[in-house]
Amino acid sequence: MNDTTPRVAIVNDATAIPLPEAPWRRLVRQYLKSRIAAIALLTLALLVVVALAAPVIAPQDPYDLASVSILDAEIPPGIASAGSDTSYLLGTDGAGRDMLSAILYGLRISIGIGVASAIFALLLGTCVGLVAAHFGGKIDAIIMRLVDLQLSLPAILVALVLLAALGQGVDKTLFALVIVQWAYFARNVRGAALVERQKEYVEAAIGQGLPSSRIMFRHILPNCIAPLVVTATLQMGHAITLEATMSFLGIGLPQTKPSLGLLISNGFEYMFSNKYWISMFPGVALVILVISINLIGDHLRTVLNPKLES
Amino acid sequence: MGLLEVKNLVTEFRTPSGTAKAVDHISFSLGAGKVLGIVGESGSGKSVTAYSLMNLVDPPGHIAGGEVWFKGENLRAASKQRWNELRGDRIAMVFQDPMMSLNPVMKIGDQLSETLLIHHRSKRSSAEKIVENALKRVGIPAPVERMRAYPHELSGGMRQRVAIANAIVNQPDLIIADEPTTALDVTIQAQILYEMRCLTRESGTALIWITHDLSVVKDLADDICVMYAGRIVEQGPVDEIIENPRHPYTRGLIDSLPHAGTRGKRLYSIPGSTPPLLSLPAGCAFSPRCTRATSRCNTVPPVFADDARAHRCFHPIDTL
Amino acid sequence: MNAMLETRNLSKSFGLKRSTFARAASAVGLAKDNQKKVHAVDNVSLSVKPGEVLGLVGESGCGKSTFGRMVAGILPPTNGSITFEGKNATRASVENHLNVQMVFQNPYASLNPRLRVDQLISEAAQYHGILKPADAPQFVASLLQQVGLDPSYANRYPHQFSGGQRQRIAIARALSLNPKFVVCDEAVSALDVSVQAQILNLFMDLRESKGLTYLFISHNLAVVEYIADRVAIMYLGRIVEITDTKTIFKSANHPYTQALIADAPRLDAKVAEHRPIQGELPSPLNPPAGCPFHPRCQNATSRCKEERPALKEIAPMHFSACHLND
Amino acid sequence: MIEMLTKRILQSAAVILLMSLLAFAGINLVGDPIYLLVSPTASQQEIEEAARSLGLHLPAYEQYWRFLVNAFHGDLGKSFVFNQPAVSLIIERIPATLELAFTALFFSVVIGIPLGMIAGLMPKSRIRRAIMGCSIAGVTAPTFWIGLIFILVFSVNLGWFPSGGRGPTTSVLGIDVSFTSWEGLKYLILPALTLSLFKIALVIRLTEAGTREVSMQEYIKFARAKGVHGSRLMLKHIAPNVLIPIVTALGLELGHLIAFSLVTESIFAWPGMGKLIIDSVLHLDRPVVVAYLMITLLIFVFINFVVDVLYLLLDPRLRSTAK
Amino acid sequence: ADLKIGFKAEVTSADPHVLNGNNRNVWVHVYESLVAQDENLKAKPALATSWRNVDSTTWEFKLRPNVTFHNGATMTAEDVKFSIERAMNLSGPRTFRTYLKAVQSVTVTGPGTVTIKTKGPSPTLPDSLGLIAILPKTIGDKASEEDFATGKTTFGTGPYKFVSWAHGQRVSLAKNSAYWGEKEPWDNVTFQFIPREPARASALLSGSVDLIDAATANVMDSFKSSNKIDVVSTTSYMLNYLQLDRFRDNSPYLKSNEGAPLAKNPFNDIKVRQALMAAVNREGIVNRLMKGDAEAASQFVPAGFFGNDPALKVPAHDLAKAKALLAEAGYPNGFRMTMHCSNDRYLNDAKVCEALGQVFSQIGIKTEVATMPFAVYAGRATAGGASGEPEFSLFMFGIGAVTGDSLEPLLAVAHSHDKAAGLGANNRGRYSSKEVDALVIKASVTMNEKAREDLQKAAAKAVIDDVGIVPLFFLKSTWAYRKGLTVKPRSDGFTLAMGIRESSSAK
Ligand SMILES: Nc1ncnc2c1ncn2[C@@H]1O[C@H](COP(=O)(O)OP(=O)(O)OP(=O)(O)O)[C@@H](O)[C@H]1O
Ligand SMILES: Nc1ncnc2c1ncn2[C@@H]1O[C@H](COP(=O)(O)OP(=O)(O)OP(=O)(O)O)[C@@H](O)[C@H]1O
Ligand SMILES: [Mg+2]
Ligand SMILES: [Mg+2]
């Protein structure tokens, strides 16, 4: 009967193998399975669109000092201003800015700062972390002590020094935030890379005669992406709140170009008066923004975890 | 009636893309002091069967039907509390992976005496004596020292023996061992098999031994069930099955094993691969890979039983 | 002897790297100099002839993988030398990587989950300039066919394959550099019996069609018996016996080999009722003095406890390291 | 272990030196402290005189060199603002800070871990959703906001707790603590709760993730197969395995609690180090800033060391390699 | 009865000779000076019962007899001499030397008489001596910061005795029952440091403290809605004003509309300066932004202070006039400007700047507002330029007439910058007018009060007419306290237990 034994059968019956699917398609499909996560993504997209379109849809240019008047300060939502007959849907703040416009422009800055600083910090931290993991030994020790140093340097001092050295502005605040955040990424990447480096596929790549730099960046790095994405979304939220705190302490953004955080901390003084709208509306916008980013990150964590993928 | 009677046990997994029957109407019985081998490819439902017998199927899985009688008790009707009494005391299990089944932060001795203490009131010192004896029985040298060790300080073989010792401390009536030697070396595997044989003989404990390698259970088991895609395709006394397999799948498993006789020749290998449980072919699940399949195989084959043996195939191999 | 690969006194020891500070501290007596070394591979001299399959058998942790890794140029040896086709290959060069490839034990871990099959297979060849990017798709397709996979799988990811299929991809990757020598490190241990048979067949086919030479590492004696021409038995980092397959299985000399063969479960043997060898593989951190096997050996003498037996030719082409032969 | 500590400290000494340089350069970059120190109407002459009395007239590198020489003799300089040794100024505030930090840590552990475990053990339940939802809110809300709401609700409206400051202290082993009396505790609760809110959320999330991970582990199933169930399963089998990553995170967070709880401290007028650093930075009180950063770095080093030791205690697997 | 005060600032030193307004606020409870300041900062007898000019450079002070320090020692002329000399010679950045720089010598000329010789005529000496605490000589020259902080040498003659100072938390004082004057009703007085306003407000609302200082409009609503709180306020000496770059032809932060450097410094044109003056919306800022926490200013000191000129009226807010003036000056389309401010120094400083930016933009000067912490701001405003000169073009500062006399701000802000003579220390715009300089110098040596006040008024008018500075407003000091207290507001913003009483109706 052994004679009838077929030659090695080529296993290619389609039913045995899941259909090929691009990884991002699978990601998207997995991601959209959760209703909450989909809503969060939609909300974020909406906020981004609204922020981008701010110059078009905002009733006022809050950055143009000539169009803002202190005489219009603290007008409650929906009431006509003293001079003109325009009405402010969400009221005005203490400087007479239209809250709606200020929130739209503030969103722009907050999202920009959160996203951009997280991305830059991610790039910087990733490179540094990979280098540390790759070279190990002394270089690793030096880099990790620098990371310790960075983590124990208060953000406020860094921000203040940068403010003094470079002046005030969105770009400088961004720079300060990157400097404060890169260490988190470096730590994360290094940790993940050290784990990945032990895996057999790395040995396989060595066995193929590939140089270690290529192994680090082409083979190990992509496998560290999942924890990185999660850190990045968390850090985005954190960056936005950090910027708010920095502005609260007067070392963040220029007074005349408020971010959401600055709007809130300005309105913070009105906690004891009944001018709720000055800090509540930007607060609501910020909370929605940060929660949706966190939910997305949370869900990405689930989706990107191959263990939970079935 | 045997110690354990399983009738038409069904275990399902509810997944987003459908319900998978990982265990599909399996039945067998096992007497005290007997050894049952369950053999099958990866994914054929061996572990799920074991978990079902322990009532440890985790969501999304659940036991969907059938009966399990243990010493005359209907386990399907047992309460949670009853299960907590039974597990570890009357029915014990040894898991597949020795590296993963011991708690890494607890000392060996504590883990073993815990098994004893949660079921029986006794003094710590006397519990430790029992544990020490159990460790000795599974062939661990210097057991008193080992009891103070943590799992990571032991080799894989030792850990697996600790897991086996854990199964025997309460002298259960039934031990379910899920591929306990797959990850081990031949010499260690041989030791464990030897100890298991002694155990069943000496204390009358019944044993279910799960593996994908027929040669491993050959010397140990009294009976064998061959599983494929959640169903038992053939069962019966071990020698008869190995000598005269009736189901083509069993034949394939036997032929796949390399040995001196096949040296230089091509090995037989079952063509194709295990179908996913969610898209099982209608009828005999093995038919797409079977060289003997005919259109008749598209209906589920009945169980053909003659005396102690049974098989599910319309075209059994007739070696006689 | 026209050996293809030859190792001479190849050794590898692992020890925790110590910092400058720790060394300084122990120098002034602040810390105990308790550095332990694991001699994972200890003075192994072997040779493999072209076209041969050398089986390497031993218990877990005895140093088989370490040896395989050194041969494949993944791990630099601490001591000794490797010669490949007469040229020194102790330090891995690109040329050496092209000649010697490795297939790993675990098909789930040895493929980078983030690379597509075609990338996995063609990356190194392209990097080394063996392959032009334009030819890559055909190259991948033909390799996939050689290992019995459908070329349409080229743009899938490893997780979409079963264990046996992954092992085939790993083999295709090893073949992509057109090696002369393949180290198979427990390449079938993780697979279940029917898939194992497929892969073993594939190895034999490739040997025939490409004239490949294998170092076949396994602890499964049945598999080794099936595939190997010669078998080397390793115990605690050393070769204890080496000869052709038939001799090993018929008339093993070393007590350890004998125990191994007796313990191996096999379908065609009668019920084994003997008591298997007892005791654990001693820790490589503090190997026993003398013959490393003596604590488990039933015939051990006092000499075995003190003196290390050397590997001696006890019959033509049959080497064994046991005092009992004297 | 002592070897480990010394090694760490030696390694950190270099970093601390670097830190002092950075802080020094940073403050110099921000501005000349002298303008903040002298009376607003002081003449140029008086300014110069004052600068001389503080050594600020020297070139920056020389000031740094002087600082190093003095630091080597154990003198980190006198605060420009308080005219007291910077170190004693900081040390004076350490008990208050530690008290607040540890109370916050205590809250986050006793509230966060049980909630996280509950959430992790019932992955599909509504309780989990509620807990995780709250924890997201906890991560999001800015501290200054929460602090004020707490004050408004609990001290102004309900009058349960005082709105700020530190309560009466008693000396325990020479350290002034306020938690020994109910009166003192009352002052501690609100700021500690404010500070711990984010940490509670963090601990909940970590514990939940860890519990989910651990409860899927084979050894937990194995324990269940032994008949282990209920609280024993949770406390003896799951909890110790969940704790390891939490300890790492909490170690880092404790450092932050100690060094940077500035917003909370200033809202609650809690006389801790965070308030000191922010004031010192804004007054360019360089000796205090430099000494402060050096001390916090040491604290971080020490905490990291303790975390490593805890690791060894919690995870026997690490013990064998560390020996 | 006990009094608990929620105090904004933190005490940084217990040495009463270390200059710091907030410290002094607390230590005047413990220490007294020869002269005291009443609510309007007018001098009144304290440890000196009377004083007179022997000649234009010699002052004689008669001491109050039978005054004892808290350690029981009787105060003597030697103690006074010791104290003044100690204050003059104390080293460190913050001393009272500025106020004592006129003093030549202090001599004891009798058991109860001290004679002070000045370098030149010094009409404001009694005011200045009002700042100098008298300490017992027995504490010696070596008394350290530490000794004061722990109470070892903390002995004054004041109505309260020092009990303790917990750094960053509170200063506790107790009644001095041996006080020479009217005995205080409070047994214990505590200054609780609560820097953040909302926290201070809630401390008051929750009853943790009886009174808070520096209450602003932000929290007024909640005080109003609670019927347990009363509020009192007064205009303080703190003037916020704008300074303009007058010393550079090419001011770095003034640009043409295209961003190119301007041909000449527009601020050197009086029309431009007048345009700025007219553009400022003082009433708007005071009412809408400060919400009553400030009073529009037209000069250096508020009404009631020495040197205030009631004839100087607050300039009207007139955008049309401002635009016209700009056009006349040759800037019909304005120009570009960056204006600098601190953001953590004065009440609402950043917001005020923003509001100013609004009005300047409205008259065509496209204004960017840059705000920064005072730590950064102060250095740059004073010496941030390339060669150590002031950096900014238009910027805001504050100055207070601590002694209640306009002479000090005139000397510091309006007089030409003269490093050697120590004049024009705060003149960071380098405004310089011969006429003003002459008037101010003359006032500083005129012993006749009436004549001196006239000179100072003339100087102030000259500065304002020339728009040497743009005065904005005087800040107000506000106290909020539980009903049942009466609080005497002081224009130096000091919170004195001596001015706080349980109102009779409440008893
Ligand atoms: N949690 C789960 N969700 C969905 N399906 C599951 C789950 N667990 C197991 N299964 C399915 O049940 C089937 C049987 O699995 P089981 O683990 O019993 O196989 P096995 O025979 O033990 O294989 P192996 O030899 O690999 O251990 C598999 O096909 C698997 O797809
Ligand atoms: N990177 C390493 N660092 C330290 N020790 C190592 C390292 N790699 C291997 N070893 C040690 O070297 C010895 C031999 O390991 P090796 O992996 O070669 O064994 P093996 O025979 O392949 O075992 P297995 O059958 O389990 O694969 C073991 O004791 C192992 O602990
Ligand atoms: Mg299984
Ligand atoms: Mg190996």
Question: Gist?
Answer:
The complex is a heteropentamer of chains A (310), B (320), C (326), D (323) and E (507). Chain B is α/β, with parallel strands linked by helices.
Write the layout of secondary structure elements.
The complex is a heteropentamer of chains A (310), B (320), C (326), D (323) and E (507).
Chain A: H1 23-32, H2 35-52, H3 54-57, E1 79-80, E2 87-88, H4 99-135, H5 137-152, H6 155-166, H7 170-197, H8 200-207, H9 212-223, H10 225-248, H11 260-268, H12 277-304
Antiparallel strand pairs in A: 1-2
Helix pairs in contact in A: 2-4, 2-12, 4-5, 4-7, 4-10, 4-11, 4-12, 5-7, 6-7, 7-9, 7-10, 8-9, 10-11, 10-12, 11-12
Chain B: E1 4-15, E2 18-30, E3 35-40, H1 46-54, E4 61-70, E5 73-74, H2 80-86, E6 91-94, H3 108-117, H4 124-137, H5 143-147, H6 156-168, E7 174-178, H7 186-203, E8 206-211, H8 214-218, E9 223-228, E10 231-237, H9 238-243, H10 248-256, E11 304-306, E12 309-311
Parallel strand pairs in B: 3-8, 3-9, 6-7, 7-8
Antiparallel strand pairs in B: 1-2, 1-4, 4-5, 9-10, 10-12, 11-12
Chain E: E1 2-7, H1 21-27, E2 35-37, E3 43-45, E4 48-55, E5 58-63, H2 77-89, H3 97-100, E6 103-110, E7 113-118, H4 125-129, H5 145-150, E8 160-166, E9 170-175, E10 188-193, H6 197-205, E11 211-212, H7 217-225, E12 229-244, E13 254-255, H8 270-279, H9 282-289, E14 294-296, H10 319-328, E15 336-342, H11 349-362, E16 366-372, H12 374-383, E17 394-400, H13 407-414, H14 434-445, H15 449-465, E18 469-482, E19 485-487, E20 500-502
Parallel strand pairs in E: 1-10, 1-11, 15-16, 15-17
Antiparallel strand pairs in E: 2-3, 4-5, 5-7, 6-7, 8-9, 9-10, 11-18, 12-17, 12-18, 13-15, 14-18, 19-20
Helix pairs in contact in E: 8-10, 13-14, 14-15
The structure holds adenosine-5'-triphosphate (ATP) (2 copies) and magnesium ion (2 copies).
What does this structure look like?
The complex is a heteropentamer of chains A (310), B (320), C (326), D (323) and E (507). Chain A is mainly α and 310 residues long. Chain A is built from 12 helices and 2 strands. The longest helix of chain A is centred in the middle third of the chain and has 37 residues, at 99-135. The radius of gyration of chain A is 25 Å and the shape is elongated. Chain C has 326 residues and is an alpha/beta fold. Helix content of chain C is 31%, strand content 22%. In chain C, α4 crosses α5 and α6 (163-175) runs parallel beside α7. The longest helix of chain C is centred in the middle third of the chain and has 18 residues, at 193-210. By secondary structure, chain D is mainly α. In chain D, β1 and β2 (175-177) form a beta hairpin. In chain D, α10 packs antiparallel against α13 and α13 (286-314) crosses α14. The model of chain D has no long low-confidence stretch (mean pLDDT 81). Chains in contact: A-B, A-C, A-D, A-E, B-C, B-D, C-D, D-E. Chains A and E meet through α6 of A and α6, α7, α9, α11 and β16 of E. Bound molecules: adenosine-5'-triphosphate (2 copies) and magnesium ion (2 copies). Residues 64-65, 105, 185-186 of chain C line the site of one magnesium ion. Chain B: Belongs to the ABC transporter superfamily.
